[in-house]
Write a structure and sequence with these properties.
Blueprint: H1 16-20, H2 29-38, E1 41-47, H3 55-70, E2 79-86, H4 91-104, E3 117-119, H5 130-151
Parallel strand pairs: 1-2, 2-3
Helix pairs in contact: 3-4
Length: 152
């Protein structure tokens, strides 16, 4: 699911979700959160903007983390991981920004042939990064394999 065109406000750390089990901010977050909860696997992906993840994906991470905790760690033992696209630099910071929510939530993060990072600036340019695409494919294959094993 793409966040393009979605309105996702930042977490205000009010902790009302701990009392109500819901986030009080009215935007597109709840629909995305519900899909994450239903999913067997989750990949969070972001381009590198000024050396870090986009504000929208960071808002998803923060709010999903708080709300998951309020609801009893709903992502525990799900499979997932990050995928980052960078032009030149910042990917080694952005990758752990996305990775840490999976570890914090007790999720299973499969490995690949390298970190899940690809390079490109303009639309479609990442298609030329053969190693990045190979890494992403191997990561997806490993996710599917683990999800299949868990469901057996």
């Amino acid at each position: 699911m793409s966040l393009a065109g979605k309105k996702i406000g930042p977490c205000d750390a009010c902790l009302s979700c701990k009392k109500t089990g819901e986030c009080h901010i009215e935007d597109d977050f709840q629909t995305i959160f519900d899909k994450m909860v239903k999913a067997d696997g989750i990949i969070l992906s972001s381009p590198v903007y000024c050396g870090s993840a986009t504000p929208q994906i960071k808002a998803i991470i923060d709010r999903a983390g708080y709300l998951s905790g309020a609801k009893g760690r709903v992502f525990e033992n799900k499979v997932g991981g990050p995928l980052v696209v960078g032009r030149r630099a910042g990917q080694n910071f952005t990758y752990p920004q996305l990775l840490f929510i999976f570890l914090h939530q007790g999720m299973i993060v499969p490995g690949s042939t390298y970190w899940n990072i690809a390079f490109g600036r303009e639309k479609g340019e990442v298609d030329q990064d053969e190693e990045g695409l190979k890494t992403a494919r191997k990561f997806a294959e490993k996710m599917i394999w683990i999800i299949t094993k868990i469901k057996e």
